[in-house]
Amino acid sequence: KQEVTQIPAALSVPEGENLVLNCSFTDSAIYNLQWFRQDPGKGLTSLLLIQSSQREQTSGRLNASLDKSSGRSTLYIAASQPGDSATYLCAVVNNAGNMLTFGGGTRLMVKP
Amino acid sequence: NAGVTQTPKFQVLKTGQSMTLQCAQDMNHNSMYWYRQDPGMGLRLIYYSASEGTTDKGEVPNGYNVSRLNKREFSLRLESAAPSQTSVYFCASSGAGPQYYEQYFGPGTRLTVT
């Protein structure tokens, strides 16, 4: 059974800092990996999708990398802002393409 | 373009009552999903529908039924609610199955069963 782990569970940084969120998964037979953002009491917003054949994806200040063989992905946030405060979730799609497994999330707080 | 919409936003049920959670998407997506989110358990897939007319069980299907009414709508029914079903329920959709396209989520339904 696929297990997805996110470290750290919570992170507090001062504004302007560059930071890295980690995601690891136990079964490397995945189709893709997706990073989401969730604000308190809200739904999930898709940030980046990395196909299993890709190594990284970029969107603005966000860069996500994928190392399928080692079962790891990182989300890099450059020049963090208070508006980046949210919970960040990673999820992987299994080899059959019919199951999305989520990590527990990293709760990020960026202090002004 | 509203994306994925869910109704109701909040609901309180007594044990044994039934209810249906509604979900609709206007992105012409083939696949739709129902998840529940619980503290300490993360998001877990209840049921999904890869295309109109098909549904399949996810990780935690017990106590739930689903209906893919048409391409736009996918409903989740609790026949006899239990306190263990207190959770936040999210509906999502994607273009051609999760293996290629991003999943887009609705705002959620917060359900409390007393």
Question: Main attributes?
Answer:
heterodimer, A: 112 residues, mainly beta, 6-stranded mixed β-sheet, globular, B: 114 residues, 4-stranded antiparallel β-sheet, 11 strands
Concise structural overview:
Chain A has 112 residues and is an all-beta fold.
Describe this structure in words.
The complex is a heterodimer of chains A (112) and B (114). Chain A is built from no helices and eleven strands. Chain A has 112 residues and is mostly beta strands. In chain A, the strands form two sheets. In chain A, strands 2, 4, 5, 9, 10 and 11 form a six-stranded mixed β-sheet that branches. In chain A, strands 1-3-8-7-6 form a five-stranded antiparallel β-sheet, with no helix packed on it. The mean pLDDT of chain A is 93. With 114 residues, chain B is an all-beta fold. Chain B is built from no helices and eleven strands. In chain B, strands 2, 4, 5, 6, 9, 10 and 11 form a seven-stranded mixed β-sheet that branches. Chain B has a four-stranded antiparallel β-sheet with strand order 1-3-8-7, with no helix packed on it. The N and C termini of chain B lie far apart (36 Å). The interface between A and B is medium-sized, with 22 and 26 residues.
